[in-house]
Protein backbone atom coordinates (compact mmCIF):
# COMPACT_ATOMS: atom_id res chain seq x y z
CA UNK A 1 0.00 0.00 0.00
CA UNK A 2 1.21 3.44 -0.89
CA UNK A 3 1.60 5.63 2.20
CA UNK A 4 1.19 8.75 0.03
CA UNK A 5 -2.11 7.47 -1.39
CA UNK A 6 -3.38 6.56 2.08
CA UNK A 7 -2.46 10.03 3.34
CA UNK A 8 -4.24 11.61 0.37
CA UNK A 9 -7.42 9.54 0.96
CA UNK A 10 -7.33 10.44 4.67
CA UNK A 11 -6.89 14.12 3.81
CA UNK A 12 -9.82 14.07 1.38
CA UNK A 13 -12.11 12.40 3.94
CA UNK A 14 -11.05 14.98 6.58
CA UNK A 15 -11.79 17.82 4.14
CA UNK A 16 -15.20 16.32 3.31
CA UNK A 17 -16.14 16.01 7.00
CA UNK A 18 -14.91 19.53 7.79
CA UNK A 19 -16.92 20.96 4.87
CA UNK A 20 -19.99 19.03 6.03
CA UNK A 21 -19.74 20.34 9.59
CA UNK A 22 -18.91 23.91 8.46
CA UNK A 23 -21.83 24.11 6.01
CA UNK A 24 -24.45 21.88 7.62
CA UNK A 25 -23.42 22.07 11.27
CA UNK A 26 -23.86 18.29 11.58
CA UNK A 27 -23.03 14.93 10.05
CA UNK A 28 -25.01 13.73 7.02
CA UNK A 29 -28.12 11.61 7.64
CA UNK A 30 -28.92 8.20 6.22
CA UNK A 31 -31.75 5.74 6.78
CA UNK A 32 -31.15 3.25 9.60
CA UNK A 33 -31.40 -0.35 8.40
CA UNK A 34 -30.70 -3.08 10.95
CA UNK A 35 -30.30 -5.55 8.06
CA UNK A 36 -27.54 -3.36 6.56
CA UNK A 37 -25.32 -2.66 9.61
CA UNK A 38 -22.26 -0.43 9.46
CA UNK A 39 -19.71 1.10 11.77
CA UNK A 40 -20.58 4.36 9.98
CA UNK A 41 -23.86 4.73 11.92
CA UNK A 42 -23.25 7.21 14.73
CA UNK A 43 -26.33 6.12 16.71
CA UNK A 44 -29.11 3.59 16.51
CA UNK A 45 -32.67 4.45 15.57
CA UNK A 46 -35.97 2.88 14.70
CA UNK A 47 -35.94 1.00 11.41
CA UNK A 48 -36.35 3.46 8.53
CA UNK A 49 -35.54 6.58 10.60
CA UNK A 50 -32.75 9.00 9.75
CA UNK A 51 -29.50 8.58 11.64
CA UNK A 52 -26.18 10.49 11.40
CA UNK A 53 -23.25 8.72 9.77
CA UNK A 54 -19.64 9.40 8.90
CA UNK A 55 -16.78 7.60 7.12
CA UNK A 56 -14.94 5.22 9.46
CA UNK A 57 -11.43 3.85 9.01
CA UNK A 58 -11.47 0.13 8.34
CA UNK A 59 -9.68 -1.98 10.89
CA UNK A 60 -6.44 -3.17 9.34
CA UNK A 61 -6.75 -6.35 11.41
CA UNK A 62 -9.98 -7.44 9.71
CA UNK A 63 -8.38 -7.84 6.24
CA UNK A 64 -11.91 -8.20 4.86
CA UNK A 65 -11.27 -6.26 1.65
CA UNK A 66 -7.81 -7.77 1.31
CA UNK A 67 -9.41 -11.25 1.35
CA UNK A 68 -12.05 -10.13 -1.15
CA UNK A 69 -9.36 -8.89 -3.56
CA UNK A 70 -7.38 -12.13 -3.14
CA UNK A 71 -10.48 -14.11 -4.18
CA UNK A 72 -11.04 -11.73 -7.11
CA UNK A 73 -7.42 -12.18 -8.24
CA UNK A 74 -7.78 -15.97 -8.05
CA UNK A 75 -10.95 -15.82 -10.16
CA UNK A 76 -9.29 -13.57 -12.75
CA UNK A 77 -5.85 -15.19 -12.58
CA UNK A 78 -4.02 -11.86 -12.45
CA UNK A 79 -3.05 -9.21 -9.89
CA UNK A 80 -5.31 -6.23 -9.14
CA UNK A 81 -3.61 -2.80 -9.08
CA UNK A 82 -2.55 -1.84 -5.55
CA UNK A 83 -4.25 1.59 -5.74
CA UNK A 84 -7.74 0.11 -6.13
CA UNK A 85 -7.09 -2.29 -3.24
CA UNK A 86 -5.97 0.65 -1.10
CA UNK A 87 -8.99 2.74 -2.11
CA UNK A 88 -11.58 0.16 -1.07
CA UNK A 89 -9.64 -1.03 2.01
CA UNK A 90 -9.31 2.34 3.73
CA UNK A 91 -12.83 3.51 4.78
CA UNK A 92 -16.35 2.28 5.36
CA UNK A 93 -18.64 4.96 3.89
CA UNK A 94 -21.57 5.80 1.68
CA UNK A 95 -20.70 7.56 -1.59
CA UNK A 96 -19.08 10.97 -1.11
CA UNK A 97 -19.71 13.76 -3.64
CA UNK A 98 -16.89 15.82 -5.10
CA UNK A 99 -16.25 18.22 -7.93
CA UNK A 100 -13.32 18.65 -10.29
CA UNK A 101 -12.36 20.36 -13.52
CA UNK A 102 -14.13 17.47 -15.28
CA UNK A 103 -17.44 17.99 -13.43
CA UNK A 104 -19.25 16.51 -10.44
CA UNK A 105 -18.79 12.93 -9.34
CA UNK A 106 -19.62 10.49 -6.59
CA UNK A 107 -16.76 8.56 -4.98
CA UNK A 108 -17.69 4.95 -4.30
CA UNK A 109 -16.87 3.33 -0.97
CA UNK A 110 -18.14 0.22 0.79
CA UNK A 111 -20.62 0.39 3.66
CA UNK A 112 -20.18 -3.03 5.30
CA UNK A 113 -19.05 -6.62 4.75
CA UNK A 114 -22.04 -7.51 2.56
CA UNK A 115 -21.30 -4.46 0.42
CA UNK A 116 -17.74 -5.75 0.00
CA UNK A 117 -19.13 -8.93 -1.59
CA UNK A 118 -21.48 -6.92 -3.80
CA UNK A 119 -18.52 -4.81 -4.94
CA UNK A 120 -16.55 -7.97 -5.75
CA UNK A 121 -19.37 -9.19 -7.98
CA UNK A 122 -19.64 -5.81 -9.74
CA UNK A 123 -15.87 -5.55 -10.28
CA UNK A 124 -15.76 -9.11 -11.59
CA UNK A 125 -18.60 -8.38 -14.03
CA UNK A 126 -16.89 -5.20 -15.20
CA UNK A 127 -13.55 -6.97 -15.69
CA UNK A 128 -15.13 -9.90 -17.56
CA UNK A 129 -16.84 -7.42 -19.93
CA UNK A 130 -13.50 -5.67 -20.54
CA UNK A 131 -11.89 -9.04 -21.23
CA UNK A 132 -14.65 -10.05 -23.66
CA UNK A 133 -14.28 -6.74 -25.53
CA UNK A 134 -10.50 -7.20 -25.60
CA UNK A 135 -9.98 -3.91 -23.76
CA UNK A 136 -7.39 -3.23 -21.04
CA UNK A 137 -8.54 -4.18 -17.54
CA UNK A 138 -9.79 -1.28 -15.42
CA UNK A 139 -11.55 -1.01 -12.07
CA UNK A 140 -14.09 1.66 -11.16
CA UNK A 141 -14.04 3.83 -8.03
CA UNK A 142 -16.40 6.73 -8.87
CA UNK A 143 -19.24 7.72 -11.20
CA UNK A 144 -20.23 10.99 -12.83
CA UNK A 145 -23.09 13.06 -11.47
CA UNK A 146 -25.91 13.83 -11.83
CA UNK A 147 -26.53 11.06 -14.37
CA UNK A 148 -24.13 8.32 -13.26
CA UNK A 149 -23.79 7.26 -16.90
CA UNK A 150 -20.00 7.40 -16.94
CA UNK A 151 -17.54 6.20 -14.37
CA UNK A 152 -13.96 6.75 -13.34
CA UNK A 153 -11.55 3.86 -13.40
CA UNK A 154 -8.01 2.91 -12.60
CA UNK A 155 -6.19 1.20 -15.45
CA UNK A 156 -5.05 -2.07 -13.89
CA UNK A 157 -1.75 -2.05 -15.77
CA UNK A 158 -0.64 1.59 -15.41
CA UNK A 159 -2.61 2.95 -12.44
CA UNK A 160 -3.82 5.87 -14.58
CA UNK A 161 -7.28 7.32 -13.91
CA UNK A 162 -9.66 7.28 -16.89
CA UNK A 163 -13.19 8.38 -17.69
CA UNK A 164 -15.21 5.51 -19.17
CA UNK A 165 -18.68 4.66 -20.39
CA UNK A 166 -20.01 1.10 -19.92
CA UNK A 167 -19.25 -1.16 -22.85
CA UNK A 168 -17.01 1.34 -24.63
CA UNK A 169 -13.31 2.11 -24.85
CA UNK A 170 -11.97 4.59 -22.25
CA UNK A 171 -12.86 8.16 -23.19
CA UNK A 172 -10.19 10.33 -21.60
CA UNK A 173 -7.19 10.05 -19.29
CA UNK A 174 -7.75 12.25 -16.21
CA UNK A 175 -4.59 11.66 -14.17
CA UNK A 176 -1.42 9.58 -14.05
CA UNK A 177 -2.39 8.09 -10.67
CA UNK A 178 -5.21 7.99 -8.14
CA UNK A 179 -3.13 10.09 -5.77
CA UNK A 180 -2.69 12.78 -8.42
CA UNK A 181 -6.40 12.63 -9.27
CA UNK A 182 -7.43 13.10 -5.62
CA UNK A 183 -5.30 16.26 -5.54
CA UNK A 184 -7.62 17.70 -8.22
CA UNK A 185 -10.84 17.03 -6.26
CA UNK A 186 -12.84 19.29 -3.98
CA UNK A 187 -15.39 17.67 -1.67
CA UNK A 188 -19.03 18.76 -1.76
CA UNK A 189 -21.58 18.59 1.08
CA UNK A 190 -22.97 15.07 1.53
CA UNK A 191 -26.72 15.00 0.88
CA UNK A 192 -29.05 13.43 3.44
CA UNK A 193 -30.95 10.32 2.47
CA UNK A 194 -34.66 10.96 2.89
CA UNK A 195 -37.06 8.58 4.62
From TrEMBL:
Keywords: Cell inner membrane, Cell membrane, Membrane. InterPro entries: Syd, Syd_sf. It comes from the Bacteria. Pfam families: Syd (PF07348). One of its GO terms (cellular component) is cytoplasmic side of plasma membrane. NCBIfam families: PRK04968.1. This is SecY interacting protein Syd. It comes from Amphritea japonica ATCC BAA-1530. The gene is syd.
Amino acid sequence: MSKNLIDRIDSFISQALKLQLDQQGRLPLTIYDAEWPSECYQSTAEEGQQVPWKPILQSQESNLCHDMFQRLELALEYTIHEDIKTWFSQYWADPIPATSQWGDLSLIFIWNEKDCERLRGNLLGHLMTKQKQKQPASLFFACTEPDGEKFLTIDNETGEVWLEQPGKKPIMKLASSLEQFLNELTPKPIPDLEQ
